[in-house]
Design a protein that fits this description.
heterodimer, A: alpha/beta, Transcription Regulator spoIIAA, five-stranded mixed β-sheet, two-stranded parallel sheet, 4 helices, B: alpha+beta, 6 strands
Chain lengths: 117, 155
């Protein structure tokens, strides 16, 4: 089992639920580390159903968006499914502006997202 | 806060307070994470001047993207180069100018990341977010300086 410094990983049934430990996802070194930890869920642990729960996340930069896009591609390539939930309005606006709300499967809260897998 | 870190030694600040507004000029080192040397003051001053959380989010995001671009793409993390940041905050206007010592770029050459064939590319969203979240965004001819302004959103 690998140790995580940027994320908290739990399981609800078959769904891997990821929460972020940073309120502001903007430090580039942390984003790099975040990317590696997220990617290892697929490349190392072979998780198929992943939910990113953004509760507590107040801010994220475009570099963080890049990691989410790469994660989404890796999940799809591994024939898995990725969903996101609990995104506050300001961050949802960032997804809308960049049209990533059409790429990502975004749900209101964790229970709705888990039920949708 | 550690006042002996290289980041703090390298940063030079000057702040002045005209009535009703706050201004700061600062040289940041070309290191990842250096934006925090100005961001804490900037966010605090936006709060003091009564800006809404939503506007503060927008300005924070735009300033962060501009400074990271200057450090990483402009100065290419060259320790001999600085990023100059000039800020002015009043109750209804936030103006931030970021200048790097790089060779510049053509902002028109950044592809539209929302086009279907680019939607899943990991990079190239910073400038678009800056343009959307700020009222005004202008690059110098060479492209090594960006001026951003935001008018306070009426409630």
């Amino acid at each position: 089992m690998s140790t995580h410094r940027r994320i908290n990983v739990a399981k609800i049934g078959d769904v891997t639920v990821v929460k972020f430990l940073d309120k502001k996802i903007l430090d580039e070194a942390n984003i790099q580390e975040l990317g590696l930890e997220l990617f290892s869920l697929i490349e190392h642990d072979n998780r198929k159903s992943i939910l990113l729960n953004f509760t507590d996340v107040e801010f994220l930069s475009s570099a963080a968006l890049g990691k989410l896009i790469t994660l989404d591609r890796k999940v799809k390539a591994n024939k898995g499914r990725l969903k996101m939930s609990n995104i506050r309005p300001e961050i949802f606006e960032v997804f809308q502006i960049t049209k990533l709300n059409k790429v990502f499967d975004i749900r209101t809260d964790e229970s709705e997202a888990v039920a949708a897998f | 806060m550690d006042h002996h870190s290289p980041l703090n030694d390298a940063a030079k600040k000057s702040a002045s307070n005209e009535p009703g507004s706050w201004q700061q000029e600062i040289d940041l080192p070309s290191e990842r994470g250096a934006s925090r040397l100005v961001m804490e003051d900037l966010l605090e001053q936006l709060g003091i001047h009564g800006w809404s959380p939503s506007d503060i989010f927008s300005i924070h995001l735009a300033a962060e993207e501009a400074i990271v671009n200057a450090i990483v793409h402009g100065n290419k993390l060259d320790p001999s180069k600085k990023v100059h940041v000039s800020c002015m905050i009043s109750v209804d206007l936030a103006r931030i100018e970021v200048t790097d010592e790089g060779s510049g770029f053509d902002p028109g050459s950044v592809p539209d990341c929302t086009l279907a064939d680019r939607l899943e590319m990991p990079g190239g969203r910073g400038v678009m977010l800056m343009r959307t979240f700020m009222t005004r965004l202008e690059y110098s001819d060479r492209g090594n300086r960006v001026l951003m302004e935001k008018q306070r959103t009426s409630e």
